[in-house]
Amino acid sequence: MKKLGCVLCIVVMSVMGGCARQQNSSSANLQPISVNKPAEARPPGQQQLYTAYNIWIVPSHNMKCINYKYGRNILPAGTPVQKVHIGEDDRPPQEYIGFETAGDNRKFKIYYQQSWHPGKKIDDFKNIMFTPQTFQEMTEGLSQREIEAIQAGHVVEGMTRKAVLIAYGYPPEHKTPTLDQNVWMYWSNKLTSFNVCFDDKQITMTCK
Question: What is the pTM of this model?
């Protein structure tokens, strides 16, 4: 994952060692911020769907709703998609959200692990992963700096929570149970996590 500027504090934790991180606990709440119109509100077959946030393309077995952020191969927010569905692999049994990119028909499976998303179901993730809004519509009101950061696949100081959600997706609920928290925890890979911090005005700030 590309290192962020020094003005944005990213606290990295590895099971191999590293700095301690701030953890939070409160009741589960996935969607207190209005980012885009839920895909479930779309009349079936009548509107094009788009990815609602950047999705990192990693080895297929690691394509998960937790959205590991390593490498520079990203399916950008606003990518048109089709054939969105929920399926299950047999060996091992595991639910996934399947879809194809429109035009080039690339197929993806995003696997869902319940323990990382307490209180939520795979249908909830399907409905926040895709939107009928175009990239221009979902980023309306954001600054040009925020939009450029989203397109580059990173976050910078001064981004709003809405912009961070489009850049990184939703933080896993087992460590960030509500978006009202001022610290959101994300994962670069299975071993490494990092924090994105906000002040009360929903702007990224230095972690304390």
Answer: 0.78
